[in-house]
């Protein structure tokens, strides 16, 4: 059975790639494309079954609400879905039998593994910090991937009974120590020439471990996007990340 797919943010860096790979897939049909200024109703008018969102952190929550209200499955790559928005979405999906939304902080298979490895390593180290590095056109900081990684590390550290890492800083008027997400320092670099990269640095007496992932091309995200599009139709409710469809859970 062919899945009817719509794309939100279709003229953007990610959305345009998604349109291309969906168009090339034998089991998917691109039925609607929407970008800034277009009417979102064209997604429901075209009877899209699954819509992929790569828009902007300021619009993604409203977009997903539209999808749920119209009985359309969602695959969300856009960053900036807060805990409050996710909780609200979970509640809405509870009342929408059979409908699924996947919110995926990073579709790169290597990035999913990096997050998993970082969470596994977290309990063995006193210190952990994240450095995320992106192209300079990125709107938000820290990245969705870094935020998710920090949450997973924070959960692993609390489950292991670990408190904050050692840090004698008492004076940091310009926030040189970066943002703090779930107790983990996150540093954001924006630089011409980059696409999407992240290092997780872990340290204890006499050693460090660095886990690094690099997306050099947006092609790296496409297998994960296609996997989510094909999976979401049989995954009711809210799914966060690709881990469960990759059998990592
Ligand atoms: N999960 C993942 O693996 C990945 C996630 N991302 C995330 O995806 C998002 C998009 O990234 P990227 O493609 O680089 O960004 P772009 O700015 O290149 O693309 C976003 C597109 O969406 C359009 N847009 C903005 N608001 C709306 C709206 N309300 N309805 C329809 N279209 C809209 C923009 O139009 P205009 O330019 O006119 O505003 C633009 O064409 C970001 O949040 C980014 O972090 C990116 C890569 C991978
Ligand atoms: O804006 C990007 O480019 C990316 N955004 C996502 C994020 O915020 O983590 C995923 C990836 O890092 C690329």
From TrEMBL:
<dbReference type="InterPro" id="IPR000846">
    <property type="entry name" value="DapB_N"/>
</dbReference>
<dbReference type="GO" id="GO:0050661">
    <property type="term" value="F:NADP binding"/>
</dbReference>
<feature type="binding site">
    <location>
        <begin position="104"/>
        <end position="107"/>
    </location>
    <ligand>
        <name>NAD(+)</name>
    </ligand>
</feature>
<dbReference type="InterPro" id="IPR023940">
    <property type="entry name" value="DHDPR_bac"/>
</dbReference>
<feature type="binding site">
    <location>
        <begin position="77"/>
        <end position="79"/>
    </location>
    <ligand>
        <name>NAD(+)</name>
    </ligand>
</feature>
<keyword id="KW-0520">NAD</keyword>
<feature type="active site" description="Proton donor/acceptor">
    <location>
        <position position="134"/>
    </location>
</feature>
<dbReference type="GO" id="GO:0016726">
    <property type="term" value="F:oxidoreductase activity, acting on CH or CH2 groups, NAD or NADP as acceptor"/>
</dbReference>
<dbReference type="Pfam" id="PF05173">
    <property type="entry name" value="DapB_C"/>
</dbReference>
<comment type="pathway">
    <text>Amino-acid biosynthesis; L-lysine biosynthesis via DAP pathway; (S)-tetrahydrodipicolinate from L-aspartate: step 4/4.</text>
</comment>
<feature type="binding site">
    <location>
        <begin position="9"/>
        <end position="14"/>
    </location>
    <ligand>
        <name>NAD(+)</name>
    </ligand>
</feature>
<feature type="binding site">
    <location>
        <begin position="144"/>
        <end position="145"/>
    </location>
    <ligand>
        <name>(S)-2,3,4,5-tetrahydrodipicolinate</name>
    </ligand>
</feature>
<dbReference type="GO" id="GO:0051287">
    <property type="term" value="F:NAD binding"/>
</dbReference>
<comment type="function">
    <text>Catalyzes the conversion of 4-hydroxy-tetrahydrodipicolinate (HTPA) to tetrahydrodipicolinate.</text>
</comment>
<keyword id="KW-0521">NADP</keyword>
<dbReference type="GO" id="GO:0005829">
    <property type="term" value="C:cytosol"/>
</dbReference>
<dbReference type="InterPro" id="IPR036291">
    <property type="entry name" value="NAD(P)-bd_dom_sf"/>
</dbReference>
<dbReference type="Pfam" id="PF01113">
    <property type="entry name" value="DapB_N"/>
</dbReference>
<keyword id="KW-0457">Lysine biosynthesis</keyword>
<keyword id="KW-0963">Cytoplasm</keyword>
<dbReference type="InterPro" id="IPR022663">
    <property type="entry name" value="DapB_C"/>
</dbReference>
<feature type="active site" description="Proton donor">
    <location>
        <position position="138"/>
    </location>
</feature>
<keyword id="KW-0028">Amino-acid biosynthesis</keyword>
<keyword id="KW-0220">Diaminopimelate biosynthesis</keyword>
<feature type="binding site">
    <location>
        <position position="36"/>
    </location>
    <ligand>
        <name>NAD(+)</name>
    </ligand>
</feature>
<protein>
    <recommendedName>
        <fullName>4-hydroxy-tetrahydrodipicolinate reductase</fullName>
        <ecNumber>1.17.1.8</ecNumber>
    </recommendedName>
</protein>
<feature type="binding site">
    <location>
        <position position="135"/>
    </location>
    <ligand>
        <name>(S)-2,3,4,5-tetrahydrodipicolinate</name>
    </ligand>
</feature>
<feature type="domain" description="Dihydrodipicolinate reductase N-terminal">
    <location>
        <begin position="3"/>
        <end position="107"/>
    </location>
</feature>
<dbReference type="GO" id="GO:0009089">
    <property type="term" value="P:lysine biosynthetic process via diaminopimelate"/>
</dbReference>
<keyword id="KW-0560">Oxidoreductase</keyword>
<dbReference type="InterPro" id="IPR022664">
    <property type="entry name" value="DapB_N_CS"/>
</dbReference>
<comment type="similarity">
    <text>Belongs to the DapB family.</text>
</comment>
<dbReference type="GO" id="GO:0008839">
    <property type="term" value="F:4-hydroxy-tetrahydrodipicolinate reductase"/>
</dbReference>
<comment type="subunit">
    <text>Homotetramer.</text>
</comment>
<dbReference type="GO" id="GO:0019877">
    <property type="term" value="P:diaminopimelate biosynthetic process"/>
</dbReference>
<feature type="domain" description="Dihydrodipicolinate reductase C-terminal">
    <location>
        <begin position="110"/>
        <end position="246"/>
    </location>
</feature>
């Amino acid at each position: 059975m062919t899945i009817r797919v719509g794309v939100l943010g279709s003229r953007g860096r990610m959305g345009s790639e998604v349109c291309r790979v969906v168009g090339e897939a034998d089991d998917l049909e691109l039925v609607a494309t929407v970008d800034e200024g277009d009417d979102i109703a064209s997604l429901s008018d075209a009877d899209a079954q699954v819509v992929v969102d790569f828009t902007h952190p300021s619009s993604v929550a409203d977009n997903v609400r539209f999808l749920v209200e119209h009985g359309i499955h969602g695959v969300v790559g856009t960053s900036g879905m807060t805990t409050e928005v996710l909780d609200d979405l979970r509640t809405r999906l509870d009342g929408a039998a059979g409908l699924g939304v996947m919110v995926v902080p990073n579709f790169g298979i290597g990035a999913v593994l990096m997050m998993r490895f970082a969470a596994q390593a977290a309990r063995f180290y006193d210190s952990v910090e994240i450095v995320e590095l992106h192209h300079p056109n990125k709107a938000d900081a820290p990245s969705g991937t870094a935020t998710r990684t920090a949450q997973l590390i924070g959960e692993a550290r609390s489950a292991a009974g670990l408190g904050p890492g050692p840090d004698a800083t008492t004076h940091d008027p310009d926030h040189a120590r970066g943002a703090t997400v779930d107790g983990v320092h996150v540093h954001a670099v924006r630089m011409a020439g980059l696409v999407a990269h992240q290092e997780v640095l872990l340290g204890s007496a006499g050693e460090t471990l660095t886990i690094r992932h690099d997306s050099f091309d947006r092609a790296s995200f496409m297998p994960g996007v296609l996997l989510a599009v094909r999976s979401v139709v049989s995954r009711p409710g809210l799914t966060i990340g690709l881990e469960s469809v990759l059998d990592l859970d």
